[in-house]
Write a structure and sequence with these properties.
mainly alpha, single chain, 8 helices, 265 residues
């Protein structure tokens, strides 16, 4: 469809809730077009992504602080200890899990602002609910849940050896053992890649970080009992024989066969 009377280029933008169909490239480009909608091409509110980035760490800090007050165990990369900024992690995957969470939270905030702007003056509640749940909460929520679950399983990896007994404890232990299994690396990579096509979830950052954690998970296979690393078995042995004094030149006096610069008598 071409508007021959338009003085400016027409920019495609996704609209959810009216039976639209999207191509492979359109789904992959979803975050870009969401931001274009807020740019000078359409409604001239390009500052929304800045607000989303500024609110993301504050929202994450508030949620984690609330959970701490409620005595709920959490996973975090940066905390305040003795009035000092403390960064701690045992595995590089934890860094990328945190990056993934930031990406999904930031995109959820940005898309919420976008939804509020796009639905102003519209009385159709169904379109609002579809956009809220199908585009924002479910896709980004799944990404956050996956990152936090795998991060928690990674933190509990050593504690699983002394996990308390009980029905619920056995279920949670089995779940975390499954979630931390290194053989799930291909699945984590594939799941992270699928978020690229889930209505802009994570704004490229979240899905990419999840795929990197899956790649790093492959390194844990070196500890698996089903994987055996073998060396070539080639050893170079050098035997030195003692030369009797006065019967021949010492080894140090003999000309070396190895190319180089030698300083001697």
């Amino acid at each position: 469809m071409v508007n021959s009377t338009a003085e400016e280029d027409i920019v495609w933008s996704a609209v959810i809730g009216l039976g639209e169909r999207f191509t492979f490239v359109e789904l992959l480009s979803f975050p870009v077009f969401v931001l274009i909608n807020h740019g000078p091409t359409w409604n001239d509110v390009g500052w929304t992504w800045i607000v989303a980035l500024a609110c993301t760490p504050l929202l994450m800090l508030l949620v984690r602080a609330t959970l701490k007050v409620c005595k709920v165990p959490i996973v975090e990369l940066v905390t305040i200890k003795d009035w000092k900024l403390a960064v701690f992690f045992d595995d590089w995957r934890e860094v990328f899990y945190e990056i993934a969470v930031v990406g999904f939270v930031a995109m959820a905030i940005e898309e919420t602002i976008h939804l509020i702007i796009a639905t102003q003056g519209i009385s159709d509640v169904n379109s609002l609910m579809i956009g809220l749940f199908a585009v924002i909460i479910i896709p980004n929520g799944l990404g956050i849940a996956l990152a936090l679950n795998n991060w928690t399983a990674l933190r509990f990896r050593e504690k699983l050896k002394s996990w308390p007994s009980g029905c619920c404890s056995k279920c949670s232990k089995g779940w975390f053992e499954l979630s931390s299994n290194p053989w799930l690396a291909p699945l984590e990579i594939a799941t992270g890649g699928s978020f690229f096509f889930l209505f802009g979830a994570g704004a490229f950052v979240g899905p990419a970080a999840l795929m990197i954690t899956g790649i790093l998970r492959l390194l844990d296979l070196r500890h698996s009992k089903y994987v055996l690393f073998l060396s070539t078995g080639i050893e170079k042995k050098v035997n030195y024989e003692k030369v009797p004094d006065g019967t021949a030149e010492s080894v140090a006096d003999q000309q070396s066969l190895i190319p180089g610069i030698y300083i001697g008598r």
